[in-house]
Fold tRNA (guanine-N(1)-)-methyltransferase.
Amino acid sequence: MKVDILTIFPNMFDSLNQSIVGKAQEKGLLELHTHDFRENASNKQRHVDDMPYGGGQGMLLMPQPIYDTMDKIPHENARVILLDPAGKRYNQKMAEELAKEEHLIFICGHYEGYDERIKDLVTDEISLGDFVLTGGEVAATVIVDSVVRLLPGALGKAASHEDDSFSSGLLEYPQYTRPEDFRGKKVPSVLMSGHHENIRKWRLTESLKKTLARRPDLLEKYEANEEEQQILNQLKRESESS
């Protein structure tokens, strides 16, 4: 996968040279480039923003520096993502969709917004949620991280991401490691039993329990199988009787 990021703060992406994303680059799974679009500003002062027509608060990114930067990046088959609070809310399904692409381009804004004409370059407008960040760099970092870890070979084990929260449509079950007894808090005995079917059922139950308690909205869209529905019905009965 190739990823290009348009930003005026390229150093904010140094973290992507670490951990899983850094290793993906070392393995040749990811080619990552940042482009400081300030360098393509046509004015002598290298300004990339200006006051909005019609008045209003703050400054807007001008289209020229971003268009000229995009002209230097082959992007015929790329998904061009604009990080925008008004965009579609990001989720794991979108991460899985983007992970299938060969080329992603991110446009990171700053200031109060963009000149609307920038959006003619864009295929997707994405938001992390109902809040406002200082700029798009943090959001782009999050999305790149969530996408790259889904690339084949990026994780140590091919199926490592399959049990992650949201990958299955449910929140992930609790997990434990050594020591077995830490300050009087013990690992559930079922996990020490070596009985794989009991462990599977325990993990499924705990996953459904956590999702029901914390994110019941996920269950509205989740297509539970017969076993899962039976567990959910039991959990709901227990909740009603407590």
In short: The radius of gyration is 23 Å. The chain has eight helices and ten strands. The longest strand covers residues 79-89. Residues 16 and 22 are 6 Å apart (CA to CA).
